[in-house]
Amino acid sequence: MKAEFKKKHHNTEERFLLQREQRWIYIRYTRGDIEKGAYILRNESNSVNDYLTQFFNDNHVSQEIRMEVTNYLNSGEENVQKSLQEFINYLLTTFSVIIMAGISLGLIIFGGYKGGSRLDETLNLYPTFTIIGVLGGLVIGGGICYLMFYKYLKSPDEKDKESKSTQLNQNNKKEETTEWLIIDVTLEDVVKAVRSFSERLPKGVYRTILVNDDYSIDFKQLAYILKGIPSKPFYMSKETYDIFEEKNKDIPPIIDTVQKAVDRYVKEQKKYPMLPYDPLRRVNYYLLIQEHYLEKKPDIELYITDYDGLISHEKPKRKQAGD
């Protein structure tokens, strides 16, 4: 989910962009000539407000922007109330359907019993048709009850998922019927297209739907943004969303494996798996292997960024004195 907040201070404009993904939070803050950005890896113990408070204090964000962002996040409480109301409605609907199903089943069985009894009286075969009528009523009534429960007792989440799935399928079918040109694109073009795609996704759907089993990007879903299908493949990490050219296609699976190991290590050990005072903040594979979070040492160096445990394959610049 993406939200942007703006405030005018005389001749200076203040802007705060907040984007929440499944695994991380992206922040971009500008005020005059000052521009700050941050990627923050999310975990279960902290709320979004906890992360933002630190960012607000470090970058002297105005009270007006703080208030707007806080109100925006607190509006999530309204969603909780909405969910509660939906649950109550669901219970009422369930109760009503159970009553209707019970009445329908009883009437159908009774009808089968009466019809079978009359046939037995006419043909003098009691209780053959009576039994057949009752069993037939059970089967028919059971089928009707099943259809009633299936149609009316889907939870709001299931209905929402079906709606999203239908929407995505319709988009995919529309894209499949369109013939796209083969085009040349740069890594930067693909990064921009993926971000644009992510911003248009329904709530609860993430950009990982773009990634195939071999970590290649499914460009059929991006063709309407790029205005064509790239002539060469690109690859993406499912954990960090980093994008790579074909020459680096072996990096995404390594990043994903190590990121999961780092996340588990941090959750259980309450610290990062790296040597103290390491200026490059390299992932210490020895610690991860020793504690059985990782099976073997990867062939590349990975680094823990300043974004709360998110790892990267790019070697960080050494900080100069005074930075």
Describe the structure.
- With 323 residues, the chain is an alpha+beta fold.
- It has 4 domains: 73 residues, no CATH class; 74 residues; 90 residues, no CATH class; 62 residues, no CATH class.
- It contains 9 helices and 10 strands.
- Strands 1-2-3-4 form a 4-stranded antiparallel β-sheet, covered by helices on one side.
- A hairpin with a 3-residue loop joins strand 2 and strand 3.
- The longest helix has 48 residues.
- It is elongated, with a radius of gyration of 29 Å.
Distance between the termini: 33 Å
Per DSSP, the total helix count is 9
Q: Which residue ranges are poorly predicted, with pLDDT under 50 across at least 5 consecutive positions? A: none
Query: What average pLDDT do the residues reach?
Result: 81
Q: Strand order within the widest sheet?
A: 1-2-3-4
Strand content: 5-15%
Radius of gyration computed on alpha carbons:
29 Å
In which range does the helix fraction lie? 40-55%
Domain tally: 4
> Structural class from helices and strands?
alpha+beta
- Run of helices and strands: EEEEHHHHHEHHEEEHHEE
- Major beta sheet, specifics? 4 strands, antiparallel
Count every beta strand, where a strand is a DSSP E run of 2 or more residues.
Answer: 10
Overall form: elongated
Oligomer: single chain
